[in-house]
Amino acid sequence: MRLLPLCFALLISTPAFAQCGGSFSSFVQSLKTEAVANGHSKAATDRFFKGVRQDPKVLNADRAQGVFQKPFIEFSRRLISQNRIDRGRSMAKKYDAIFDKIETQYGISRGVLLAFWAFETDYGSFQGDFNTRNALVTLAHDCRRPNLFRPQIFAALTLYEQGNFDPDRTTGAWAGEIGMVQMLPKDILENGTDGDGDGKVTLKSSAPDALLSGGRMLSHLGWQAGQPWLQEVTLPQTFDWSATGIATKRSVSEWAALGVKPRQGSLADARLPASVIVPQGHKGPAFIAYPNFDVYFEWNQSFVYVLTAAYFANRLEGAKIYNAGKPDAGLSGAQMKQLQRKLQARGHDVGKIDGILGAGTRAAVQAEQARLGLPADAWPTAALLNKL
Fold first, then answer.
1. How far apart are CA 42 and CA 45, in angstroms?
2. Taking every annotated instance into account, which residue ranges of this chain make up the domain Peptidoglycan binding-like (predicted)?
């Protein structure tokens, strides 16, 4: 379910060797030259790249991520089933000692990792069958995001030299992630942890290894120990909708003064910065997002995925089903692209015209709603499209 370039790996500046495109064989040779220049042995490099091939199925998967165009309510209902909730709670009991260790060591609540585990591989039942080396080289050769994937190739080469990667047999997701919680090679090098005490880090077959490694990675990405991430709230009818969205941060006490109330339990520490989110506008569900919510975007920058994963973590820990409300109908994919073109023509930076309601499109929608006197909740509707 990963939407890339939205994952743990960080973008880096392009090194001298980092070309893309052209002849695939020439590209592979440039990778081998760079690997040796960076200190990898020639013999290991030759063995690692022997038999590497371009995988057209990887490119097809990369370009076919239409599920992320779905609105939050539809997307979350598609991903969250009673079976996934029941299995998640069963896994929480089965690996209770590991989750206790993660909570003690990193302050990450078990629901958070359970949700990722569920969405990424359905609790390890399907981890992907793409050859990882071929996937990484294919995506690095493709000129869409070479700076993301090229470093992962050399990380995989390092894992191979350590005896922890088989270039011919290691498989995973189409974007090169490996194991139960889908980690890229560079993340495995930096955060791979032996959770079951056998002296090895095996993320494909050991749930303790995968979960502890995932917890360590989230901690390194900035997770604040013991703090919440997301909470459903109710908002007054007179709420200033232009203040919604992850870009607007106010203290919890300020939001409370504006009428933000928890639907269950109590709000977090009054001093914490937070955002109020209405993913399908002022007539739909509403949430308050705390600082740890931002860490989710280091895993995946799809807003709808992040919100669903954060909400599912709450559900696994006993939260109520959100109040869906009666949001205005959204736009079709074709209408979203039409809207993006109109917004772009008005000078807004919406990024690629892809029909996905991303951060740039949301900000532009909110600005135009405010200009036109509509509720500025960043939810695009036919009314807005018609007015534009």
1. 5
2. 332-388
Looking at domain 230-316, which of 1.10.530.10, 3.30.565.10, 3.10.100.10, 3.20.20.70 is its CATH number? 1.10.530.10
- Asked if residue 375 has a cis previous peptide bond (ω within 30° of 0), the answer is no
Per-residue pLDDT of the chain (388 residues; tens, 9 = 90+): 544 443 433 333 344 555 789 999 999 999 999 999 999 999 999 999 999 999 999 999 988 766 667 899 999 999 999 999 999 999 999 999 999 999 999 999 999 999 999 999 999 999 999 999 999 999 999 988 898 999 999 999 999 999 999 999 999 999 999 999 999 999 999 999 999 999 999 999 999 999 999 999 999 999 999 999 999 999 999 999 999 999 999 999 999 999 999 999 999 999 999 999 999 999 999 999 999 999 999 988 889 999 999 999 999 999 999 999 999 999 998 999 999 999 999 999 998 898 888 889 999 999 999 999 999 999 999 999 999 9
Query: How buried is 23 (Cβ within 10 angstroms: 0-12 exposed, 13-18 middle, 19+ buried)?
Result: exposed
- 337, 354, 306, 362: which is closest to 64 by C-alpha? 354
Nearest C-alpha neighbor of 101 from the set 206, 222, 196, 221: 196
99, 117, 119, 263, 359 from 126: Cα distances, Å:
22, 11, 10, 35, 30
In degrees, rounded to 5, the angle at the alpha carbon of residue 108 between the alpha carbons of residues 102 and 114 is 85
pTM surpassing 0.85? yes
